[in-house]
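Lab notebook: predicted structure, single chain.

Context: the supervisor wants predicted structures on file for every construct in the current expression panel, including those that have not yet been purified. This is the next one on the list. No modifications to the sequence; it matches the entry in the shared construct table.
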Amino acid sequence: MTQIIGLDISKASVSCCLISEKIDEPREFYYRYNFHKFAATAHGINELLVLIGSESDRQNTIAVMEPTGVNYSQLWGTQLARAGVEVRLVGHKELRSFREHHLGLPDKDDDADALALAIYGWDYIDTPRRFVQSRDRTIVQIRRLVLRLAHLNRVQSPIINRARQDLAWQFPEAAFIKSLRFGEKVPLLWGWLCGERQSVKYDLLLERSIGLGITDDLRKHAARICDLQREEMFLEFELSKLVGEPQFLPYRKVFARFGFGRRVEALLLSQIYPFENYLAADGKPDIKIRKGRRSGKPTKRHLSLRRFCKALGYAPSQESSGDLQKSKVVGGSDLCRKALWQWIFTRVEVKRARMVNDIGDRLGKIMDEEKLSGRPVRLVRSRVAAKAVKLLFKELVNELVHCNLKPQIQNPKLLE
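Prediction complete. Output recorded below exactly as produced.
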C-alpha cells in the first residue's frame, strides 16, 4: 500500500505527516491529526523510520519535502534514500500556492506545511513534472562545488576591498594592481604581503613608496585571501574532474561554441542536466498547437523551450490588469542568471573577446544594434542574455536530439 509522508524541515528538527489515502477535508484533518516532530539526531532518524514502518513499507513510501538547500534537507533526504524511501522535492512557490489557494489551511506553521506536502505528493503522485527534477550523484556533487565556490567568492570580496583600502595609505603604488592566480600559486601580491612568495618588483616598489608602511592587519588580510584562494584551487580541481566525465561531453561541445568558462559550464550543467527533463515523452521538444488568445488562430507553444528558459532564470511572466500590461522575470536560478549576465558583459559586449563563430556573430550583432538604438545598456544585456539562452536550447537540441535521430550507416558503400 502506497503512503506519503510530508516533511517540513527546520534547522534541527523535522515535522511529519504520514497519509495513506486521499484527504478530502484538509482543515478538519489538520486539527485532529497527531503530527510528529523528530530531532536531527540518530534517535530522531530512527523514530522517523519506525513511523514509516517495515522495510516493505519503506519501499512503498514517498517522502515529499522542500529543497531547503544543502544544509538541512540533504541530511533527511539522504538518510531516507538509504533506507529505501523515494524522495521527491516540491518548489517553494508551488507549495505556498497549493497550501493557500487549493487547501485553504490555517496560517503557515510547520504542521500545516507538512500536511500540505503530504497532500501535494498524493494528488500529484503520477505527475513527475509537478516536482523538482531529481539529480544524479555526480550532478549533486557538481552543484555542491559550484555553490561552495560562489560562497568563497562572496567571502573574499569584502576582505579584498578592505585590503585595498588599507593599501591606499600604506602602499598606494600597489593598491590597484590586479594580481591573479597562476597555476597552483597564490596571487603574487597577496602572497608577497603575507610572506608566502618573494618578489623583487614589490620589494623595490615598497622602498620608493610614499605610503606609511605595511601593518600586521594588512598582512593578516593577505594571508586570509591566500587561504581562500588555495581552497578555490582545490575545489576547481575537483570540479574539473567531475565536469570532464564522458556523459557531459556533448553538453561541453555546445558550451565551447558559446565560450563559457569552466565555472559557467559547471553551473549550467548543475541546472539543466539531464536535458531530457525538458523534452516530451518521445524525446523531442514539447510543442503544442493551441488557439491564440488574441488572434484566435492556431499558435505554436514551445513548452520545452519555456521550461528551459525558466530554469536558467530567463522566462518572463506576464502581469496584466486592465490597460496595464507588463512582464517580469520570476523563478529560475539566480546564480545562472548572474553568470550569464557576466558572460554577456565579458564575451559578447566586448568586440575583441567575441567567439569567432556564427554564435558570436549573431549575438554580437544583436548587442550592437540594441545599443545603437539607444536602449539602456542593462536592458540590452538582459535581452541579449535571453536570446543566448534560446540559442543555447536550440544548439543542445541539435547536439543531443537531432544527432541521435540520424540513421547509423553501417556500410558507407551503400550510399554509392
